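Ops channel
N.P.: pipeline sanity check, posting one input/output pair.
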């Protein structure tokens, strides 16, 4: 039985997540900024809805990527050096999340990024917690990603590409930014072959939570990411 949470109900212990349901822990509650930040600090994230109730997950194992383990392929390195893409941070967050919500996904008939989700994460962006990395060609937005930063932890949410390698270029610049700012782990949530090809790997949930408690205890404050630290051609 999956608990149905009221507005002020606490999350159940993550050990109660249903592994056979992909780590489904609970349903209900709301998508307020306070609730979302509390969830992420506990290793819980929302993914989809049922009858307009958010569904909350905490899978075991957990897919993560450590910035120092990022795999930069020769082809992507060549693309980065070409300067074909311009990269910006936090300038068009709403457009990025909207594009992620409308991009077709292989094996998926729809999107989990509902209008309520878009509004909730846009509010987190306005508060300085959620961030976007954007790739452009001749001024046109062609790819990017968004996620949250809490302390020394980054939680990746979604990405899209309208040109070959556009999202990978955004991810490579994200890795550079996180490394420069001493953010030590990226939560990738669930395993995909694409993330594994970039260096992501699964770790047990208890290890993930142990690392999470340390990394989110950092005094790093929320705020806008104003610039990419390295030029696109680096």
């Amino acid at each position: 039985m999956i608990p149905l949470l009221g507005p002020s109900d606490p999350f159940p212990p993550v050990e109660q997540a249903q592994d056979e349901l992909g780590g489904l822990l609970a349903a209900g509650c709301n998508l307020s900024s306070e609730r979302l930040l509390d969830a992420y600090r506990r290793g819980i994230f929302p993914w989809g809805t049922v009858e307009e109730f958010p569904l909350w997950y905490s899978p075991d194992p957990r897919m993560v990527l450590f910035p120092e383990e990022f795999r930069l392929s020769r082809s992507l390195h060549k693309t980065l050096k070409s300067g074909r893409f311009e990269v910006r941070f936090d300038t068009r967050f709403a457009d990025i999340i909207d594009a992620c919500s409308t991009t077709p996904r292989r094996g998926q008939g729809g999107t989990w990024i509902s209008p309520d989700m878009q509004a909730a994460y846009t509010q987190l962006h306005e508060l300085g917690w959620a961030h976007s990395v954007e790739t452009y060609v001749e001024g046109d937005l062609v790819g990017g990603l968004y996620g949250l930063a809490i302390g020394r932890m980054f939680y990746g949410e979604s990405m899209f590409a309208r040109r070959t390698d556009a999202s990978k270029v955004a991810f490579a610049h994200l890795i550079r930014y996180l490394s420069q700012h001493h953010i030590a782990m990226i939560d990738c949530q669930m395993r995909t072959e694409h993330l594994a090809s970039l260096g992501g790997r699964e770790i047990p949930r208890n290890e993930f939570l142990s690392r999470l408690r340390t990394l989110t205890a950092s005094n790093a404050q929320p705020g806008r990411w104003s610039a990419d630290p390295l030029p696109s051609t680096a």
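N.P.: looks fine end to end. The chain is about 30% helix and 25% strand.
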